[in-house]
Design goal:
The protein is of the alpha+beta class. It has two domains: about 55 residues, no CATH class; about 120 residues, no CATH class. The strands form two sheets. Strands 5-6-7-8-10-11-12-13 form an eight-stranded antiparallel β-barrel. A four-stranded mixed sheet has the order 1-2-3-4, with no helix packed on it. It is elongated, with a radius of gyration of 34 Å. The protein contains three helices and 13 strands, in the order ααβαββββββββββββ.
Length: about 230
């Protein structure tokens, strides 16, 4: 009987010690959790002294695009800045030539020629559109778009539109609404605040054009599908 009591006493003692150890461990976990701090995204920064060499090499590759320009006035700043984002090592701009990484050469479209002004017009149902463009350098045109919905409203817009920096990735094309035949185009774009965009797509030496345009006041958005081909006047 005495032996049984001793065993029971030892068992109770061990249980008490285990409970105390468990409580101690839980207190330790809570204390560790309380020590975790939240870092604001706004306060996050990279200390250049602590950045790994691999990251620095990657960062330098992003910055090292070399652009050699014969005459900066021949190209828009927007076009030049866009070249830096394409991932190439070197571009050289010489008159109408764009040389890529000393290997590939592409030519800027000559439609229209620098200094040349053209007027394209078209009408579908009660909506008439006239687009006037004048080439000011190899990448940019001045433009004016006049839209009239007879008996209802009108909308005019003017500005400058540029060839996108990646124009050499692949040719764009339109379809002549009268004949159904496809033709290559050069696209000039003017993107503005509030997601307003204008794209002027000029046919290469065939006198045809189309526009893609929104933010036209009370006039509908114009797409390649809902308005006819414009013809040079």
């Amino acid at each position: 009987m005495t032996t049984t009591k001793n065993i029971l006493t030892i068992f109770i003692g061990l249980t008490f010690v285990a409970c105390n150890n468990s409580a101690t461990e839980n207190n330790s976990v809570l204390t560790h959790s309380d020590a975790i701090k939240t870092v604001s995204v706004d306060s996050f920064y990279i200390d250049e002294n602590e950045v790994t060499s691999d990251y620095k090499v990657f960062d330098e590759k992003i910055k090292e695009t070399e652009i050699i320009i014969k005459n900066k006035a021949d190209y828009s700043d927007k076009f030049i800045q866009g070249l830096k984002k394409l991932g190439y090592k070197k571009f050289e701009l010489i008159d109408s030539l764009l040389i890529i990484d000393n290997k590939d050469t592409v030519t800027f479209s000559q439609t229209p020629k620098i200094g040349e002004q053209r007027v394209y017009t078209g009408r579908q149902d009660n909506l008439a559109i006239a687009v006037t463009v004048k080439r000011i350098n190899y990448t940019t045109v001045d433009y004016k778009i006049e839209m009239v919905e007879f008996g209802k409203t009108s909308h005019n817009q003017s500005g400058q539109a540029d060839i996108i920096s990646s124009f050499f990735f692949g040719a764009e094309s339109n379809e002549d609404k009268r004949t159904g035949e496809a033709y290559f185009v050069t696209e000039f774009s003017d993107n503005r605040d509030n997601n307003c965009y204008t794209s002027i797509r000029l046919g290469d030496d065939n006198g045809l054009a189309q526009i893609i345009k929104n933010c036209n006041g009370k006039i509908k958005d114009i797409t390649l599908d809902n308005f006819t081909t414009l013809h040079i006047k």
